[in-house]
NAD-dependent protein deacylase (Seohaeicola zhoushanensis), 230 residues
Amino acid sequence: MTKIVILTGAGISAESGMGTFRDEGGLWAQMRIEDVATPEGFARDPALVHDFYNKRRAAAARALPNAAHEALARLQREWPGEVVIVTQNVDALHEKGGATGVIHMHGELARALCALCGNRWDAPEVMVVGERCPQCGGPTARPDVVWFGEMPYRMDEIYTHLAEATVFASIGTSGQVYPAAAFVMEAAEAGAHTVELNLEPSAVVSDFAETRFGKATEVVPAWVEDMLRR
């Protein structure tokens, strides 16, 4: 049975108002990555980091899924084989759009992590410095997101899916962040047909067998429709 593995990046959520690293005037443009997306930045100024992620968490809670998210959920429902969605995004828009079993390799804004014992729980709307872990009581709560220099989550599981994929699709990714940028080669080496769906060519576009460019809300539903007609 044909298995589809899909990797999504910031580009699929951009039309829902979730900014990418490269958006001018967005939250990321106002901050240095070193200050808000590294363990060292959190150690230096946890209040700054919490404020940054509190704003992102609030924006994600307000955001609504778009036609691209909904199309992938439809593919999961109607495809006769397995459809696995792996996302680099920390929002919950795939789930809001109806997708299930989404692998959040970079964590989730709506979750908190204890830096001391590794416990995870649903984050409050506003996290503060010194927030205590409900399991160990340590004042070491942080956003449950993967920062630069940290290992993405569930990598063994992801590589297993890539090795089993018949089709691999990358949607809205820059191709500049590893290990995700290498997923296309992993899937291709396992024999998968590879396709990039993006606003513009990624840094690894030459690694794909097929490409489709345009707005996610247009190219993703069209691709899903083509897949379901097969």
Helices lie at 33-36, 39-44, 46-62, 67-78, 93-96, 155-164, 183-189, 216-229.
